From TrEMBL:
The active site is at R46, N64. PROSITE patterns: ACYLPHOSPHATASE_2, ACYLPHOSPHATASE_3. It is an enzyme of class 3 (hydrolase). It comes from the Bacteria. Keywords: Hydrolase. InterPro entries: Acylphosphatase, Acylphosphatase-like_dom, Acylphosphatase-like_dom_sf, Acylphosphatase_CS. Its EC number is 3.6.1.7. This is acylphosphatase. Residues 31-117 form the Acylphosphatase-like domain.
């Protein structure tokens, strides 16, 4: 790993750890597929989603798509997913130009959040 990528990743994790997690939760568990388009690759976008999702105890995955966008499936408290999506839209080092969100059925057996290849 290059020195630049290592420094960027350390900054991304530091930044993700500063995101305020809502203390009031809805109790409603949902699963959403979210696709972010724009300047979202090569800026630590997946690592940021991964770090925030783990802090919020969400399950699911995130991955880069060949068209330059980033796709994620997020499962957990609806208020936490909304907070994560809002955080990603406001990142200064990325530029989310378009976002699509679809509701999905919950996967009961899922226990973790991963970065998919």
């Amino acid at each position: 790993m290059s020195v630049f990528k290592k420094l960027r990743n350390e900054y991304v994790v530091w930044h993700a750890n500063r995101v305020k997690i809502p203390t009031v939760t809805s109790g409603i568990i949902v699963r959403k597929n979210v696709t972010f388009s724009g300047k979202v690759q090569k800026v630590g976008f997946r690592l940021e989603i991964y770090s925030i999702a783990r802090r919020m105890r969400l399950t699911g995955w995130v991955k880069n798509l060949k068209d330059g966008s980033v796709e994620a499936e997020l499962q957990g408290e609806e208020s936490h997913i909304d907070c994560l999506v809002k955080s990603m839209r406001s990142l200064k080092r990325a530029s989310v130009r378009k976002m699509t969100i679809m509701d999905l059925p919950i996967i009961e057996s899922e226990e973790s959040f991963t970065i998919a290849e």
